[in-house]
Design brief:
The protein has 253 residues and is an all-alpha fold. 81% of the residues lie in helices and 0% in strands.
């Protein structure tokens, strides 16, 4: 079969299998499976009875994922360069755009599967935790909030994926992700406090602020969605396009 006729679904399945077969990817996925129920269980131990709700359990379950999923997305891309597997991959499938597209599809599948796990563990934790705490079961996540929480995790993975495409180095991309997610928001907040002209601009460039609104299910106005679109354009769309153009000419050594 010619490389150009290999179905996109087959490429995506191959990339999905590669995400599980590498040691780093495998253990990151295992850590999600282990940490998710532990995080949910912490609600029973640490939270007051008033916080024993579906939302609390689901947020706790999703916390490890919000940290690990972007790293999985990074490694899905950078492994071709860090492990030199790209020498084989791009020989078998010369179209790098198709390979990256398959990696993006596999990343999306892992992201959706992991978020679904968080909702399931949250539901089980809510039932069991409510019984242990002796309180009524509270189902307080609406469909709208659930969709926003899913989008929160997918955007986090998209940031990691973009950094992987742009930097093509596992260490650099992982460090870059933590700088963007942990350091940059503080810098932008400080700049907004010191420079009044930047105060109105900050929400339009600070992707972390729009992520917080998504996680809380608080995207209630067109302005907030416009801010999300702005930060997505700045931190995902533009860098990804630049990275893809550069990737087409880069060599795997």
């Amino acid at each position: 079969m010619n490389a150009t006729t290999i179905p996109a679904t087959r490429l995506a399945r191959v990339e999905l299998r590669k995400m599980f077969s590498t040691r780093s990817g495998f253990w990151l996925l295992v850590s999600i499976g282990l940490l998710t129920p532990i995080a949910a269980g912490s609600v029973v131990v640490l939270a007051p009875d008033s916080d024993v709700t579906y939302e609390s359990f689901t947020r706790a379950s999703g916390f490890p994922m919000s940290l690990i999923l972007p790293i999985i997305a990074i490694l899905a891309v950078t492994s071709e360069w860090s492990q030199r597997s790209g020498l084989t991959t791009f020989t078998l499938v010369p179209s790098r755009g198709r390979v990256i597209g398959a990696k993006a599809a596999a990343t999306l599948v892992v992201g959706l599967g992991s978020v679904a796990l968080a909702f399931v563990v949250g539901a089980l934790g809510n039932v069991i935790g409510s019984a242990l705490a002796g309180v009524d079961i509270v189902w307080d996540i609406s469909v709208t909030m659930a969709l926003q929480m899913v989008l929160f995790n997918l955007i986090g993975m998209a940031i990691g994926f973009t950094l992987g495409v742009v930097l093509r180095s596992s260490a650099a991309a992982i460090v870059g992700y933590f700088v963007v997610s942990l350091v940059l928001p503080g810098v932008l907040l400080l700049l907004a406090q010191l420079r009044p002209w930047f105060e109105e601009l900050q929400p339009w460039v600070d992707w972390n602020e729009t992520q917080v609104a998504l996680l809380e299910g608080a995207m209630d106005s067109a302005r907030e969605w416009a801010m999300l679109g702005s930060t997505t354009l700045i931190w995902i769309v533009v860098p990804l396009v630049v990275g893809l153009l550069s990737l087409r000419r880069s060599e795997v050594t």
